[in-house]
């Protein structure tokens, strides 16, 4: 019996008092509080992540106060019932439950508030997490509580008597459970003899239990090694330190003081330790991991970490049977290894709704979480049966060490053979202060010849400026092994590096600012190709008829021939029947800086769809006679400042596969008009001026940049992501079949009071090409943008003297635009007079011929 349990009737107490059963209400209250804690914590974590994703999808500013507020609310709502459990009941188990949950809730406030740091500064977050968790662990070890149980010293065998005095060990544990039988005496004598034998003996059992915990942690790490990928070196080291600190915190909260009231030696107490103690420990772990990791990373940990509380309970039983408590080491190792998986092998920015449409990172995180949960359940059952069954005990230390070693080897083999080995950290884009002077470039003769001369001069000046100003910095970065990649369209260098390198670069006099250039981590299997499920059109699509493109073909005999349209997007399926004949061909018409494909391809489908709306044949494209060239600047629906620059730079001066953009560029082969159905938000690393020199250079070269306004409407001033807000970009919004501005279409004005969008075009229910030869209907300003680029191709095909004359082209487009339906009245009506009317291809081409 427990030391604080009244003896049987007649043993110094009146029968009525001795027979009075303990009140069940504290246990019921603890169970209700535990259910409340789990439900609330999981719900608020899911709500916080969902709100952040809504902010990303809607283009709203990130609210830094969100996670501190949610963490504080969780602590208050969880902490009050936990405080009552810690103070009011007489049961030591209920009181220790309340203390543990209260401490974990307070830890959640500190850990969860760290998410106020932006995800783009992930290394700084991991460093803060490591430091905060370590400090909390030190504080937790100094919290007042029950006396720590000392190592158990087995009592000498007692002769069997009718009414023996209970034998206890420090910490209130009664290892005898009543009268000892001769068999029990022999067993205990054998256990006593085991003490001091070394490996495999009683003194070795706690070490064996720790090794079992290490093996369990490695088993939980396996799914993340298989399905995840590491970031950069510094990021990985900091993730390891953060995981270690979280393990220390969990060990401080679930040390021997916590387990003492739950632990026993006989079968009833074994079950209580595993089931009751494990359940309470699981709630503690849930609160700890709710604050561990940036937004999104904590969600899988909420699923697979709490069940290991049962395995930890079984480890405690095994250690107690060996004669002394297990200490905090098993908790530290198991929890630390478990949380290292999501902390190190996932990027929180990639656990995003932006990637949730295909088998991308969110899918594989869900797979790893499910496998991790199954492993945790198997560990709970297996360790419970192995260690907590009647007369069970931990394996010998050699056996446990062998199991841990085999699992460690398995982790390494899985990483190399089936995982994504290597480091995939973010890079930095270093923007230099001096940008090329493009003033005074002569307009030259009208038409293509003049445009080509201007493009060549712009290319020459840009390259000369970059070569003159980047030399010293490139040499220093190369000496440090940071793999610099130079750019000229914006005078910038992309390089490896974390916060320390960023601080060093920011302090250099030639550097204007340093941006984070995102890098997607590889997937365990390629994402499936997005294919269309609709048949080919039987005639011009409704959107082409709305803007009069079909009349341009039939009545004016203009299809866009002689004009080249450049598409920067997820790629283009060059074999699609509607697009294959329009590819310009040659060795300088396709560039893929993401996957380095050598011929036009597209797995995402977005780029094929937009290219089809611009130049596709069979009734889907505005300018079916135009040619196209392509570049991949989006991979899996995300980009980076550097890859956006890769494609814009390629469009100014195309170069052959494997060529050097600085020396092998061919400005005479530049496309005439660029369609860009993308934007670079802060989550990808861009600031408002990141691409400003690039569009200014293309403007100076006479290349028209057409860009999507974005899909963050109907809020006013929602055109924010470069390049859409720039004055030298033709920005396009979307309307529906009723010529009314689409609800999702972003609105202006933009900074400086510039009217945006410049034009609108059909953007709801647009059918166009998809990879594999099919067709699909999509919505967005992405769908509207290529139609305007196609109209420009028709205008320049009808009048080649307009090629490169961007001012007159814009003027014609605006003057011939038709009124569109009203947008959100708070932003003002969208009308032709405001410069944001519905593009009219027929009127624009007729005006271009004059």
From TrEMBL:
Please provide the record's keywords in A-Z order: Hydrolase, Membrane, Protease, Serine protease, Transmembrane, Transmembrane helix
What spans are recorded as compositionally biased (Low complexity)?
148-168
- One Pfam family this chain carries? Peptidase_S8
Q: Which InterPro entries match?
A: Peptidase_S8/S53_dom, Peptidase_S8/S53_dom_sf, Peptidase_S8/S53_subtilisin, Peptidase_S8_Ser-AS, Peptidase_S8_subtilisin-rel
What is the active site of this protein?
Answer: 569 (charge relay system), 606 (charge relay system), 782 (charge relay system)
- GO function terms (MF aspect): serine-type endopeptidase activity
Does the record carry Ribonucleoprotein as a key word? Answer: no
Query: Where does the chain cross the membrane?
Result: 25-44, 64-88, 100-118, 124-141, 208-227, 233-254, 274-293, 299-319, 363-386, 398-418
Q: Which region ranges are annotated with the description Disordered?
A: 148-203, 596-616
Does the record carry Transmembrane as a key word?
yes
For this entry, list what GO says about its biological process: proteolysis
| Stretch forming the signal peptide | none
In terms of SUPFAM superfamilies, this protein maps to: Subtilisin-like
Q: Where does the record place the Peptidase S8/S53 domain?
A: 560-820
Give the family, as the similarity comment puts it: Belongs to the peptidase S8 family.
Tell me what this protein is called. Peptidase S8
What organism is this sequence from?
Answer: Micromonospora wenchangensis
């Amino acid at each position: 019996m427990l030391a604080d349990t009244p003896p049987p009737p007649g043993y110094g107490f009146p029968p009525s008092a001795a027979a009075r059963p303990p009140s069940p209400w504290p246990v019921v209250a603890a169970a209700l509080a535990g259910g409340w804690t789990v439900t609330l914590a999981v719900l608020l974590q899911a709500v916080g992540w969902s709100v952040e994703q809504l902010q990303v999808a809607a283009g709203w500013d990130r609210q830094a106060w969100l996670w501190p507020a949610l963490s504080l609310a969780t602590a208050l709502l969880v902490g009050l019932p936990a405080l009552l459990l810690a103070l009011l009941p007489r049961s030591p188990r209920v009181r220790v439950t309340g203390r543990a949950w209260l401490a974990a809730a307070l830890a959640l406030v500190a850990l969860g508030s760290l998410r106020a740091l932006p995800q783009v500064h992930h290394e700084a977050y991991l460093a803060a997490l490591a430091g905060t968790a370590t400090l909390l662990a030190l504080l937790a070890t100094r919290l007042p509580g029950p006396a720590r149980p000392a190592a158990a010293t087995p009592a000498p065998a007692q002769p069997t008597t009718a009414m023996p005095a209970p034998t206890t060990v420090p910490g209130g544990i009664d290892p005898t459970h009543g009268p000892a039988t001769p068999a029990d005496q022999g067993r205990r004598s054998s256990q006593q003899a085991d003490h001091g034998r070394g490996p495999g003996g009683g003194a070795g059992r706690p070490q064996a239990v720790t090794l079992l915990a290490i093996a369990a942690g490695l088993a939980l790490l396996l799914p993340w090694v298989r399905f995840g990928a590491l970031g950069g070196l510094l990021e990985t080291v900091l993730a390891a330190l953060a995981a270690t600190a979280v393990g220390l915190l969990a060990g401080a909260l679930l040390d021997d003081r916590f387990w003492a009231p739950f632990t026993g030696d006989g079968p009833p107490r074994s079950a209580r330790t595993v089931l009751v103690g494990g359940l309470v420990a699981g709630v503690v772990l849930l609160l700890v991991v709710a604050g561990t990791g940036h937004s999104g990373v904590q969600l899988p940990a909420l699923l697979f970490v709490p069940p290991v509380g049962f395995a930890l309970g079984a480890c405690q039983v095994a250690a107690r049977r060996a004669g002394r408590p297990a200490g905090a080491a098993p908790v530290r190792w198991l929890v630390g290894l478990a949380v290292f998986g999501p902390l190190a092998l996932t990027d929180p920015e990639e656990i995003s709704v932006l990637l949730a449409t295909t088998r991308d990172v969110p899918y594989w995180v869900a797979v790893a979480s499910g496998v991790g949960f199954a492993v945790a359940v198997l560990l709970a059952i297996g360790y419970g049966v192995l260690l907590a069954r009647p007369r069970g005990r931990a394996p010998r230390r050699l056996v446990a060490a062998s199991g841990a070693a085999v699992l460690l080897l398995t982790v390494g083999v899985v990483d190399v053979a089936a995982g994504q080995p290597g480091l995939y950290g973010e890079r930095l884009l270093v923007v230099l202060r001096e940008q090329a002077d493009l003033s005074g470039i002569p307009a030259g003769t009208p038409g293509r010849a003049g445009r080509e001369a201007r493009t060549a001069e712009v290319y020459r000046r840009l390259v000369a400026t970059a070569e003159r100003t980047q030399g010293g910095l490139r040499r220093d970065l190369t000496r440090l092994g940071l793999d610099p990649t130079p750019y000229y369209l914006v005078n910038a260098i992309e390089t490896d590096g974390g916060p320390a390198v960023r601080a060093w670069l920011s302090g250099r006099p030639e550097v204007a600012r340093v941006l984070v250039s995102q890098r997607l981590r590889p997937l365990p299997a390629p994402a499936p190709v997005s294919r269309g499920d609709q048949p080919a059109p039987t005639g011009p699509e409704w959107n082409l008829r709305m803007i009069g493109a079909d009349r341009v073909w039939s009545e004016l005999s203009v299809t866009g021939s002689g004009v080249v349209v450049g598409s920067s997007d997820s790629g283009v399926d060059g074999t699609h029947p509607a697009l294959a004949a329009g590819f310009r061909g040659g060795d300088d018409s396709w560039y893929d800086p993401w996957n380095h494909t050598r011929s036009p391809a597209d797995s995402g489908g977005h780029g094929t769809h937009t290219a089809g709306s611009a130049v596709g044949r069979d009734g889907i494209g505005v300018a079916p006679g135009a040619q196209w060239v392509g570049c991949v600047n989006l991979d899996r629906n995300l980009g980076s400042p550097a890859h956006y620059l890769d494609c814009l730079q390629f469009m100014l001066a195309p170069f052959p596969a494997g060529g050097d953009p600085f020396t092998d560029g061919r400005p005479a082969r530049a496309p005439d008009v660029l369609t860009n159905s993308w934007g670079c938000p802060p989550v990808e690393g861009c600031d408002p001026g990141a691409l400003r020199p690039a569009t200014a250079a293309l403007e100076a070269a006479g290349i028209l940049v057409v860009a999507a306004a974005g899909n963050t409407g109907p809020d006013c001033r929602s055109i924010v992501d470069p390049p859409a807000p720039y004055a030298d970009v033709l920005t396009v919004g979307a309307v529906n079949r009723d010529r009314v501005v689409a609800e999702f279409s972003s609105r202006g004005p933009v900074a400086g009071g510039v009217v945006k969008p410049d034009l609108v075009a059909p953007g709801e229910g647009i059918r166009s090409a998809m990879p594999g030869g099919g067709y699909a209907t999509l919505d967005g300003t992405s769908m509207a943008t290529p139609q305007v680029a196609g109209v420009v191709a028709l205008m320049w095909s009808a009048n080649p003297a307009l090629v490169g004359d961007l001012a007159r082209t814009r003027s014609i487009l605006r003057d011939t635009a038709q009124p569109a339906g009203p947008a959100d009245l708070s932003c003002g009506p969208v009308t032709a007079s405001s410069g944001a009317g519905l593009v009219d291809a027929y009127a624009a081409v007729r005006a271009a011929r004059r």
